[in-house]
Amino acid sequence: NAGVTQTPKFRILKIGQSMTLQCAQDMNHNYMYWYRQDPGMGLKLIYYSVGAGITDKGEVPNGYNVSRSTTEYFPLRLELAAPSQTSVYFCASHTEGAIQPQHFGDGTRLSIL
Amino acid sequence: QQQVKQSPQSLIVQKGGISIINCAYENTAFDYFPWYQQFPGKGPALLIAIRPDVSEKKEGRFTISFNKSAKQFSLHIMDSQPGDSATYFCAASFQAAGNKLTFGGGTRVLVKP
Asked: Given pLDDT bands bounded at 50, 70 and 90, which one contains residue B95?
């Protein structure tokens, strides 16, 4: 049981490039989330999904896009990378229910130069 | 607008001592208050959580104290061990908003042997 798997672990991008951060979970969780964590700061919600085909914006969605075609995968897309998007990105998931703990992946460290 | 404020930003404690981290929130609709522990290079992991209908919850050496009237909650780590050295995040959510977590800024705890 792998839990939440994020790839790649590290990436350096040039300004204006695009890339997709991958997130997969094998727990059949309906709820999935993308957060960014800036140095010395807490996590901020970028996008989330409550099930396949359903996504919604979080606190800081500008510059990002998501899709959720299956329960297992929830990729995050950066279309035109900017230095302000340098951060560590975490994907999380949890099962159905009133209050469920979120299970986090180990993150993708992204630098944009 | 930061809805969950966490203090201190960092903390050094001797082995066997007590670590205390405080959080204050603004939104009275919050109904779930988890604490996450994060080791370097890893994603946050749920440590302990509390609902506002109780004033204290204890799990092993970790205790959450909750003061609803003051809109504050705190994490106490008793008999702190070097293995407790990590970054701790408080968070809050409410069911009506789909359980999306709002995180505090984090506290880096260092336990000296």
From this structure: confident
